Structure formats: structure tokens, C-alpha cells
Amino acid sequence: MSQVTIYTTRYCPFCVRAKALLDELQVDYKEIPVDGDPELRAHMESITGGYTVPQIIINERAIGGCDDLYALHRKGELLPLLQDNN
After folding, report:
1. Is 12 exposed, middle or buried (0-12, 13-18, 19+ CB in 10 A)?
2. How does strand 4-8 pair with strand 30-33?
3. In terms of pTM, does the model score above 0.70?
4. Which of 7, 44, 66, 72 could, after both became Cys, cross-link 78 (CB 3.0–4.6 A)?
5. Which CATH architecture group holds 4-83?
């Protein structure tokens, strides 16, 4: 099973869209809210390279945000990535 982590904030529409796609695909994920926590947000930025939310990590690979997630799905690359356990 793949490991998926998504860094979010409470009122982010892109976070909602990204989680909706993962839910639709029945993907289990760990959500880490960074609302009002500058240290946690700085940690997110240090491991993903991105400051905006959502930031999505699949099997220790930072894939970017919501648009990146949907782009992978449109290209048919998301499901194979989710099935890769390495």
C-alpha cells in the first residue's frame, strides 16, 4: 500500500479538491493541517520545496499540489504511482 501525506489548511479549496480526488480513488492518506503553525509549515516547505497548500507526498516523493495531482491523474500516471510501494 502506498503512503500518501497531504499538508492542508482548513479553508483551502485546492486542499478540498485534492482530498476529493484521493477519496474518489479510495486512497488512504494522512492529512497534516498546517493552519497557524509556522514551524510545521516551515517543515512542510523543507521536505516538499513548496510553501502553498496542499503539498502532497506519495511514497516519500513530493509531487506538488492539487493541479499536479490532477495532471498526474489525467496522464494516467497517478494510479501506477499509488500502486508503487518502493
Report:
1. buried
2. parallel
3. yes
4. 72
5. 3-Layer(aba) Sandwich (3.40)
